[in-house]
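hey m, so remember when u said the tokens were messed up on ur end? i reran from scratch. heres the input so u can diff it against urs
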Amino acid sequence: MKNGKHFRTLFITENIIIAALIALCCINYKFITRSVARFACSMPELPAPENNSPSGIEVSYADAVWIHKVNTVEKLRSVQDRFSGIEMDVAYIDGRFFMGHWPEEQPSGLVLDSMLGALSDISRHRFWIDFKNLADLDETEARAALDTLSAITARHGLPRERMIIESTTPQKLTAFTDAGFKTSYWIPSPRINYATTDEIAGWYEKVVAGLKQTRVSTLSGNYQCLPYVMRYFPEHTFMAFGLNSNLKVILIDEK
């Protein structure tokens, strides 16, 4: 009898817990849908920007997950068999591309040339190159960086279109686009939950101004930019954290 009462008590308790969870999910669902609706309503109508960009980046869904911040040979070797898309951080210093998440981290002595050479089969990979200090280079230095990168890809037999050069300075990416590299303009991130109409309009104008200065293959940014890109830049492909029909590349972290 004691066991029977115990089981009935457990059964009743479990049902109470399940009912509570269902109620909580319903409350959360209503909260989320109302929040999304309020967010959508807060986005102002803005003019459609001109799209003078070259063709975007096409990848299959199987290749859509890329690995983030691969800046050491050890990490490269540990992920190369599981990811075809690899993101690396570089800074161009004294004629060489050094690996490192500059300026948060000082560039290491490891260079991009050596990283690419450490791959067992470079032909199965694409590369997202976060060019950390392109904004700091003058015209002569930026041209030298392009020439150096062109020589590196040629040395490793890597087609330029399999390397995406990313920068927050869009006007300096046009030369890389014209040289056959894929390019990406890393756009600023608006405040998602608290952005006012004026702030959204200001963000939009800043991105449009950047696009007018360049020809890039795609846009990239924090996943929080996605609803804004979908709303205001639907003709551009987008690389970020997340998943959507506009989204071509997903960047993930792995410890």
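this time it looks ok to me. Confidence is low (pLDDT under 50) at residues 4-40. if urs says something different then somethings off w ur setup not the seq
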